[in-house]
Fold this sequence. Notes:
mainly alpha, 79% helix, transmembrane, transmembrane helix, membrane, DUF4386 family protein
Amino acid sequence: MNEGLANGERPLRWLGDSAARLTAASALLLATNLLWIIAVVLNVIGPVGSLSAGLLAWLAFVLDIPGVLLLAAAYAGLTREQGLGWTRRRLAITWGFILWAGVSVYWRFVLPLAIGTDLQDLFLGLLGADPGALALAKASWASMSELFAWWIAAAAVFLATHVLVAVDYRRATEGEWTAGLPAYVWVLGAGVSLLSTILIVAALLPVLGGGLLGSTFTAGVLGKLLVAPNMMLSGYVSSLHLGRATKAARRASVG
């Protein structure tokens, strides 16, 4: 019998147990990174029917938030199932993912709304494709600087949380699904993502001041939209398989 059930702590039915949450999180995050890769391709070749790079970018911006929250729920569920109480490490992992989700909602949606537009239009403006959005961004220099700062902060939190995941992976006990996570791949992907974010911001800041796009932009975009997603994609394929295998093993043990 599942130890969490034995202790009377049934998981929320709509979320399932920790393995089900890991599976759902991996599926959403795999889809998110795949969307970014396809969006890059569509940006080069043009829209395919009603499918455009902009649409896929918006889907990716939305899907990864519930995906990461499900990862937090997976760690919370695992702790309850074991009935051993919270460790500081797993508590920090859970809240790290929750913090990332909150900061991401703020810089992606709340701040652009406060400026008077949306995130995609702001970036198009900074890249010279929308003069009106560029003027709005320049007029809201302080808010744009705050947006960039929170973007970098979110990437840093994501990396720090995955470093804790890697530490937890090293210390996982036999039988825990955490022992099978692609933790080092995730850390590497999150690190590339943070570095790429810094490079993109460094290139865009001069534009706000009326200058030209910085030379670090291309490297940042390649890292953010191609290198990091490919790394994370392979990791989420692995964790998706892990979650499904863990669910199957639990069903077999109950049967």
